[in-house]
Design brief:
It is a single chain. The chain is mainly alpha-helical. It has 8 helices and no strands. Helix 6 packs antiparallel against helix 8. Heme C binds next to helix 4, helix 5 and helix 6.
Length: 155
């Protein structure tokens, strides 16, 4: 019986090692771009940095990968968050959104942070510096409101 257990564990190990050769493409484009939120708007550097720390890993063309981000199958789970996150909102391409898209994203940004859906709770468990305080959330919603006013010409 013992020999079967050994063979099973060895096969499992071989499978795990083989899996390491199978990796998703890494999200490592330019962190700051002309069309990005930071350079294409007059957002304050402090708020811009907050977004970079709390959101950019899943919502920009550049991810700061933790060491386990290189280990399959975790790398595939991260890749899923990044792909889906960027599909809904990519701060690196902010200037390319239409006014309508921007307004709906700005409403979403205030909404999702205010009800603690974003940054994803599974992420903030490990990335403690990405957690937002109540003050941060007020600041974010003030900013989104101001941006919407600018777009619709109230300011
Ligand atoms: C760990 C990855 C991750 C981080 C960090 C993260 N998000 Fe997301 N975000 C996602 C994913 C995945 C989706 C798409 C699926 C969903 O809506 O849950 C998403 C969707 C969104 C959406 C669109 C929701 C909709 O209704 O379409 C907004 C707005 C958003 N995120 C804002 C933010 C903001 C603002 C931050 C930072 C304060 C942030 N996210 C941080 C992964 C992340």
């Amino acid at each position: 019986m013992k020999i079967f257990l050994k063979i099973f564990l060895i096969l499992l190990l071989i499978g795990f090692i083989a899996l390491q050769f199978y990796q998703p493409e890494k999200n490592m484009g330019d962190q700051l771009t002309e069309d990005g939120l930071i350079w294409s708007t007059d957002i304050s550097p402090e708020l811009g940095e907050k977004f970079m720390i709390s959101c950019y890993d899943c919502h920009s063309d550049y991810t700061r990968y933790p060491f386990y981000g290189y280990i399959s199958p975790v790398s595939w789970l991260l890749n899923k968050h990044i792909t889906e996150g960027k599909e809904s909102l990519n701060f690196s391409r902010w200037a390319l959104y239409s006014d309508k898209e921007k307004i709906s994203l700005l409403i979403g940004i205030c909404d999702e942070t205010a009800n603690y859906s974003m940054p994803l709770p599974v992420y903030t468990k490990l990335q403690k510096e990405a957690r937002l305080s109540l003050d941060d959330i007020f600041e974010i919603c003030d900013w989104t409101e101001g941006e919407i006013d600018k777009i619709i010409g109230l300011e």
